[in-house]
UniProtKB/TrEMBL annotation:
This is Polyisoprenoid-binding protein. It comes from Amycolatopsis echigonensis. Belongs to the UPF0312 family. Gene3D superfamilies: Lipid/polyisoprenoid-binding, YceI-like (2.40.128.110). The lineage of its organism: Bacteria, Bacillati, Actinomycetota, Actinomycetes, Pseudonocardiales. InterPro entries: Lipid/polyisoprenoid-bd_YceI, TTHA0802/YceI-like_sf.
Length: 185
C-alpha cells in the first residue's frame, strides 16, 4: 500500500462538477432485467486531507424530483409516495462519518444516507481516478464508487407480486457515483 502522503498535493476543498458527474442507481425489474436511472440535479463538496485521508469529509445533496430513467411514466411513479415521495422529501442526503484508505488508490467512505427521512449508515468503496489541470486552469480530481442498499430500509416498500413468482422491483438497489470535482480557490 502506498503511503497516504502520495496524495498530499491533493489536499483542499473540492466542489462536485454536476455537469461532469453522475449519481445513478440500478434496480432489477420483473426479475428479468435491470433498469438504470440517475438524478440530474445534485450538489456536493468534499475536503481531502492527502496526508491523513481519515480526516477527509464529504457531503452530497440530491434533488429527488430530478430522477430520470428515460421513461416519463416510470419517473412520475418514482416521484410519488410509492417510492421517493418527492413533495414531502425533496432531497436525499449523504454526509460522511469516516474515510479509510483501503489500497493504493481505494477508499471506503462511510456516512449517513438519508432517504425519505430515514437515515442509515452506508459504506461506499471508491477508487481514485486521477487528477488533472483542465483547459480552464482548474485542478480536478475523479472518483468512482458503488454500493448496494435495501430500499425497504429507507421506507421505499412499494412492490407488486408477479404471476410467475417474484416481485416487480428488487429490494436491492445499487447506487453508482462517478464524480469529477474542482478544487476551490
Amino acid at each position: 500500500m502506498t503511503s497516504a502522503t502520495t496524495y498530499a498535493h491533493l489536499t483542499g476543498t473540492y466542489t462536485i462538477d454536476g455537469s461532469h458527474s453522475r449519481i445513478g442507481f440500478v434496480a432489477r425489474h420483473a426479475m428479468v432485467t435491470k433498469v438504470r436511472g440517475s438524478f440530474n440535479e445534485f450538489e456536493g463538496s468534499f475536503t481531502l486531507d492527502g496526508e491523513n485521508p481519515q480526516n477527509s469529509s464529504a457531503t452530497v445533496t440530491i434533488q429527488t424530483k430530478s430522477v430520470d430513467t428515460r421513461n416519463a411514466d416510470r419517473d412520475g411513479h418514482l416521484r410519488t409516495n410509492d417510492f421517493l415521495s418527492c413533495d414531502e422529501f425533496p432531497t436525499i442526503t449523504f454526509t460522511s462519518t469516516g474515510i479509510k484508505q483501503t489500497g493504493e488508490d481505494t477508499f471506503d467512505v462511510t456516512g449517513d444516507l438519508t432517504i425519505k427521512g430515514i437515515t442509515k449508515s452506508v459504506t461506499v468503496p471508491f477508487e481514485f481516478g486521477g487528477s488533472a489541470k483542465d483547459p480552464f486552469g482548474n485542478d480536478r480530481v475523479g472518483f468512482e464508487g458503488s454500493t448496494s442498499i435495501n430500499r425497504s430500509d429507507f421506507g421505499v416498500t412499494f412492490n407488486a407480486a408477479l404471476e410467475t413468482g417474484g416481485v416487480l422491483v428488487s429490494d436491492k438497489i445499487t447506487l453508482e457515483f462517478e464524480i469529477s470535482a474542482i478544487k476551490n480557490a
